Amino acid sequence: MMQRRTVAFSKDSSNLFFHILTKCNLRCKHCYINRDEHGRETLDIGTIKAWLALFLDRAPDTNLIFLGGEPTLHPDLAPAVRAARQMGFSSITIDTNGYLFHDILEKITPEDVDFISFSLDGATPATNDAIRGKGCYDACIAGVKRAVAKGFSTSMIYTVSGANIHELHLMPAMVKDLGIDRFFIQVVGIRGESAGANNDLQVTRERWLETVPLVAEQIAETGITVTWPKVFLNPGEVFECAGIVADNYFVFPNGRVYRCPLCEDYPVHGLEIRDNQLIPTTTLNETAFFKLTIPEGCVMNKLVQPGNITYGPDGRPEQKIACCMLKQEIVPD
Ligand code: SF4
Ligand code: SF4
After folding, report:
1. C-beta of residue 153 within 8 angstroms of C-beta of residue 110
2. Residue 21 CA: which ligand is closest?
3. Which residue CA neighbors atom 3 of ligand 1 most closely?
4. Which residue, by CA, sits nearest to atom 4 of ligand 1?
5. Per residue in 229-254, is it b (16+ CB within 10 Å) or e — as a string?
6. Cβ neighbours around 91 below 10 Å, total
7. From atom 6 of ligand 1, which residue's Cα is the shortest distance away?
8. Ligand 2 atom closest to Cα of residue 286
9. What pLDDT, in 10s, does the model give residues 262-305?
10. What gap in Å lies between CA 71 and CA 154, rounded to an integer?
């Protein structure tokens, strides 16, 4: 028996997506990092600790994800991870492109982190490396194997776009023997590098629905927990905006703190950190968008990636677009 569920939003726990730097060794085609909006700083260890404390004060049951750029390029990632563990975060994850700089696997133990998450965007080097850069496929697989051999729990993130959806069906066979624990399917966001790209990155509703749930099921059958975004609500399903009913914080090195990832290309962050204090911004910001009720569901999808939405002959949207934070999950027994 496998347990299938939509992961409900919860105010009882929060998720802290902490970009500790924006520097990266890669230039992926769909990268959402936008240094003009997110900053170019590498936060020092003192600042990282001070900022971590701000969020723990706000919600004690917080899952922490270290992000970049490439977080393993940060020379103090290991002490940052250990500090977070001591502070009592509910879970700690490092998202990496697989290069694992600064011998990070030698400096932390499987007790220090809950997951190391590896990004792979194709089942073959040809497809993955066309998106992420030459040599990335091999580096990622080698990184996963090293982490698994050292006893770390690992996950893999596959960001689906028009450039790689044709290889998603190859992933169940590919990951079967890798030893990963979780598989996350993401949908490409039209922001950062994707926003300016002249390409067909966005996947149609039909293609998404005929591909993703089936592959998720096949991967779950190999014993791996699979999570993917809901994207399209079924008729009658209630729309909810995570900006209102959940507690997610996307923190960037310039101090901007967003509650919605789709807002990250714009200076509409609802909070910011100044002098190590977390304060609400006073100009027009994302908080105002969350409350707008429109027949399409998510306001930010309508604004920044309307290609997701189809309309019937009566001019009404054929389905509501779910919040990009709403996930479905299959947990194998
Ligand atoms: S997607 Fe990640 S690995 Fe790729 S360029 Fe952006 S920060 Fe670097
Ligand atoms: S993606 Fe849409 S529904 Fe989700 S937090 Fe952002 S504005 Fe709200």
Report:
1. yes
2. 1
3. 97
4. 28
5. bbbbbeeeeebbbbbeebbbbbbbbb
6. 15
7. 31
8. 7
9. 999 999 999 999 999 999 998 889 999 999 899 999 999 888 88
10. 16
User: From atom 6 of ligand 2, which residue's Cα is the shortest distance away?
Assistant: 260
- Inter-helix orientation angle 77-87/45-58, to 10°: 30
What's the confidence (pLDDT) of residue 197? 55
With cut-offs at 50, 70 and 90, classify the pLDDT of residue 256. Answer: very high
The pTM assigned to this predicted structure is: 0.93
Q: Residue 237 and residue 128: Cα distance in Å, rounded?
A: 35
Task: Kindly give, in sequence order, each residue whose CB lies less than 8 Å from that of residue 144, ignoring residues fewer than 6 positions away.
Answer: 98, 118, 154, 156, 178, 179, 180
| pLDDT category of residue 196 using cuts at 50, 70 and 90 | low
Q: Which atom of ligand 1 is nearest to the CA of 192?
A: 6
Distance 318 CA to ligand 1 centre (A): 34
Please name which ligand lies nearest the alpha carbon of 70.
1
216 contacts 2 by C-beta, under 8 angstroms: no
What CATH code would you report for 2-292+322-332? 3.20.20.70
Average pLDDT over residues 33-41: 95
